[in-house]
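Hi there. Long-time user, first ticket. I'm pasting a complex I've been working with (about 360 residues overall). I'd like to know whether the download I got is complete or cut off, because the file seemed smaller than I expected. Thanks.
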Amino acid sequence: MNKIWLFMVLSSLVVLIFVNPSMTLDSMISASASALELCLELCGVYAVWLGLLEIVDATGLGKKLAKLLRPIIKKLFRVDNEEIEKMIALNMSANMLGLGNAATPMGIKAMQKMDDGSGKATFAMIMLIVVNATSIQLLPSTVIGLRSAAGSSNPADIVLPTLLSTIVTTVLGISFVLLCDFVSRKFRRRKK
Amino acid sequence: MSIYILPVLFVGLFIYGYFKKINTYDTFVKGAKGAIELAVSIFPFVATIMIAVALLRLSGITELLAKLLAPVFKFVGIPNELCELVLLRPFTGSGSYALLNDVFATYGPDSYISRCASVILGCSETIFYVATVYFSQTKVKKLYYAIPCALLASIFGAIVGCLLCRVM
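Hi, the file is complete. Here it is re-exported in full:
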């Protein structure tokens, strides 16, 4: 992340010295201001979902959901901890419903619990990131909304191709992680 | 149909909570308490990534990259007009939705290009944003192969999506 960010910022800044030096600072400030706006909105989103999450937790529904999804989660993430399983189960359910922002607080909680302080991402953490970053969406509601606002004659006709490609993305993402894990473990063994 | 899913789920949850003898009000407040802290703690991460994206766009580097990569995109079947969208998608959600609206306005929402753009956005996520925010509360510095795997999978998803738009 450090290298990617430095590369993005440095290359843009060098170009901007020649192209548009006067707007540089302005655009940085306005970007950070819109980040604040986004966080403010997210704060509202999180309050709703964390409130509901607490109720889900208190009723024991979270545990039940985790139990239901346990076989998949155990196989996929190779974790064995009820609390983590529960957070991952809720995170995945929210993602499937197309509620990416609701999935975030659960994902962060799962990450915190999986953190061993070594500074290195574990297999389960990487899997969680990839599953979230390629998540299966049953209904792309934002896109449909924008399409109908733009006057489309059939705004929902992209649902099926979207669903199929999101399945492709998720399956490939998971396979890539499994492959990378396999290769890196083999590599490490050979080193020993 | 889908508009009923969430309200119905919420009703179910509150009724279930009532029968389980849970003080829903107290519990909700307790959960909601964490929201400000969470939003505040992810702010620096969101701001940092959004500044980088703003600079990239202002400098014209994304446009240049899109032009340079156009032959590659053409080869795999992604329309040239969508290069910038595909490049920016992993970094910014709001930015890519703004681009999607531009595409709708320019080519009409029912054109092949617009449908491709819709599918590409619908089947992908803001990968860098997800990675930074999810790891923001941990000590993790080394992400290993997480981002490359997600990026590669998304690119394949986009290719498949454009292909499907041609036949569906």
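A couple of notes from our side: Chain B touches chain A through 93 residues (CB under 8 Å). The radius of gyration of chain B is 20 Å.
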